[in-house]
Amino acid sequence: MSIDKKLLDQLMEGRSSGDLFGKEGILAELTKALAERALTAEMEEHLGAEREEGVAEGQNHPPNRRNGSSQKTVTTDSGKVILDIPRDRNGTFDPLLIAKYQRRFPEFDRKIVSMYARGMTTREIQGHIEEIYGFEASPSLISVITEAVMDEVTAWQSRPLEPCYPVVFMDAIRVNIRSDGAVSNKAVFVALAIRPDGTRDVLGLWFQANEGAKFWAKVLNDLRHRGVQDILIAVVDGLKGFPQAIEAAFPEAQVQTCIVHLLRHSMSFASYKDRKAVATALKAVYTALDVEAAEAALAEFEESDLAKRYPAIAPSWRRAWNEVIPFLDYPPEVRRLIYTTNAIEALNSKIRRAVRTRGHFPSDEAAAKLIYLALNATSVEWKRSVREWHRVKSQLAIMFEERFPMA
């Protein structure tokens, strides 16, 4: 329903466009007028409902009625507004629009949370609110609003998961967190999963100063406790202790190292002028038709002058060989999906953008809160379905037979 233009002209009479916002702006007046009208309507409905209830129960005492009003200062997304809140004689009226002990409209809280999710610091949020809305929001108010998100984070971190995930990518970002008076650099591990329907989902966040088999056992057991019974393919970037841990938690899962990360590691040993030649030689390994052909290509590289010039490259592939060769059993559609952890790296880049403005976090919980909000703010982008999922799904159903959930 559109607003009558004549009414808008009346409202703007004698005003300029600059009079819309701020403490004395027309939006503040409209917010007050509309809110008080809504509260009046709520009171009328409340009194009417009580009268009907009294008649139905055969009561003969005087009906409840209005009893003046009381003032309350409420923070809205257009500034602070003083509302006249209607009262009733029996004191039973508790408005839905702005509850008895509520001092802020929900939309204001959502704006604060949105700014926080985009990496704005408390000081930046304060300045933005004062500049746009004309009043000061204290650091404690901003903290109270954003701390309310922690209940959501806790519920999200412990929510039930699906029984089977076709592919799970594991990677980490680094954040600075204060503990016992000192700031330490912690890894935040992120698990990005592909659901059976091809959509993506972040399964959780885990904080650890140092990775290892014991830590990974904790992560994987957490997934099991939340309902995960099987993972078909786990794609990782050389995470220390991960293959052993996943073998213990999910014995049938195939651990696949990220080929792109292995290539980058190899390139770090080669001089700039030889990198193209090294990349070409190694491409023959990971694009081989099968394991035997890949083994032959790697053996050929080991005998080459390039391998002798850069003796660290071939051993790095040998050490990771058990996590490389599963890739060679997959058809092209699946190879393209698990070739790299780029999907989770793209997600992590969005998280880094949000945390970059923070020098450090006071706790793991504070970091988890911001990362959770950043994930929600960008969910439309990273939750998109895998391209050509129907083709990948068909191949996985053939390869993993009854383990792959077709429903």
Automatic annotation (TrEMBL):
Q: Where is the composition biased (Polar residues)?
A: 66-78
- Identify the stretch(es) annotated as Disordered: 50-79
Matching entries from PROSITE patterns are given as: TRANSPOSASE_MUTATOR
Alphabetical list of InterPro entries matching this protein:
Transposase_mutator
Presence of keyword Ion transport: no
Pfam families to which the protein is assigned, alphabetical: Transposase_mut (PF00872)
Q: Give the UniProt keywords, A-Z.
A: DNA recombination, DNA-binding, Plasmid, Transposable element, Transposition
- Going by the entry's taxonomy, the superkingdom of the source organism is recorded as Bacteria
Name the family.
Belongs to the transposase mutator family.
What's its job?
Required for the transposition of the insertion element.
**What is the name of this protein?**
Mutator family transposase
